[in-house]
Fold this protein.
Amino acid sequence: MIDEHRGAGRTADPAALAPRLEGANGWRRGRDISRLLRARPGSPSDILHTNTVEILATGHPAGLWAAGNVLVSLRNLNLIAVLDLGTRAVRWWWGPRELSGQHQPSVQPDGTVLVFDNGRGLGRSRVLEIDPLTQGVTWQYEPDLFCEMAGGCERLDDGTVLISDAQAGRALIVDRDGREQWAIHVSTRATSAGRYRAEFYRLSAIPRSAARFLGAGDRPARTLAESQVSCHVGQSVQGPVISVIVPTRDRPGPLHRALRSLARQTYRRFEVIVARDGGMPVEQVIARWQREMPITLLDADTPYGVSHARNRALAVAQGENVALLDDDDMFLPHHLQAADDALRSGRADAVYGQALVSPTWIEDLPRGTNGLPRKDYPFDATFLGVANTIHTGSIVARNPAASPVRFDETLQHCEDWDFFLALHHTAGHRFARLDSITSVYHQVPRPGAVTSAYRSTPTPFTLARATLYRRWPAVGGLAEEYREWFRHFDQRLDTRIALGLPAPAHVYEHAVRGLHATFTAHRPPDHALLDRLLPRSHVSWTGQGPGTDIPCRGAIHAAR
């Protein structure tokens, strides 16, 4: 109801809305009243947002405060303080211009204060230890995390620190040198806005002697916990179920983003194998993420192509299943969990999520996706022999180690398409599509393999498609008609590129979308679609023949 008033351009009136709040549950009524007051000019509510009130059992070693004084954290003032309630005196305070939205301060036996600084104003979080006498920071842990809300930190008996990164759905224990000793990841849930939110506020350590109260079997506390929380402990002795293969060359920035998307996975029983195919070193990128997940780097200074890089990774993959991720694409947080659930159901040997095709770098689903193409086609083995409908970074399949299926190292383009066909026809994999978008396929205009492919005609995509059409015979006369349509598509696109004209944005995706609709309806291919995508008037040419090197201006087209 607050949002209704905001949308109408009016200020929420507590008196007018009070009758509507009276019928709500108690907790909801309080929440709505708080939101209502915050919406008023000047925000007269929640000035302090006190998130810690602790009566101190002991005094400060130097006498700054006494036993019975109260430690408080006032989040909205970026302030922690020790108060003497008897005399109404502030015995010590710290935080403004240092903290931002902090949580869970605690006094340590030596008199220092440990606090989780959410860093709301800086976009980064950290754990600080403060000496109240000098007002200086004596220790800090500042990993690459940002937990804007909730979270906390707690020093354990052995001197390590338990850190709750609530919004990422994880907690970790680090030592004084910042080395990670333990980690746990808790499942996340989708919000109404399509984002993902962790289902815990903060983790706390309990003595082993107290653990017995959780009981065993069907004790209420254990039953409730196990029904509400799904988690993975970083020190698990179980091997990986999924091996994620990431080939890379000369893209350390995109590789960093791709690995970050893996670190955010709600499913944790996976390993990452990065295969560098020459180009820039990536050791520093790998080192940044090795605390978050197991990563193996297969390093090679000489480039042999993406197929060779993936085959090297397949040779050492330990997982029952393998997932593919290009270094410039990304998984959404639930991708591996959704794939594992589907594979465990036994209904398929290879599953793929729907993929959003984005012309800009994104790391989460935008609020509006209607204007962006998708690769979301249900599996059709016959149509897969016409065009590739599966995004490389969306598939998770049974490890093909026991079969002869590998990536064809003579192919530098469409090698993934050939691999999918081989999994189905040679290895006998049953394919199934997942019901949600689980990955992002970046088609960002930039120099790279795709753009370079359009500096001569016929293009490598035209040649690769012809190779695959010869290798994998069409199933039925209708499929052959659609293949012929694509031969004309390639011919027109080759001619356009030879003239130095750019390919229309997402032209291949639009071609597949239009053809898939008529194919599934068992109708002949739509030749008018070809004229709409690549008009004849733009491609008539009587100049040089195939094989001539002609400059290309910004063509973006992909057939993977």
Notes: The domain at 242-444 is CATH 3.90.550.10 (Spore Coat Polysaccharide Biosynthesis Protein SpsA; Chain A). The chain has four domains: 2-38, 50-203+228-233, 242-444, 453-538. Residues 126 and 142 are 5 Å apart (CA to CA). The longest helix spans residues 477-498.
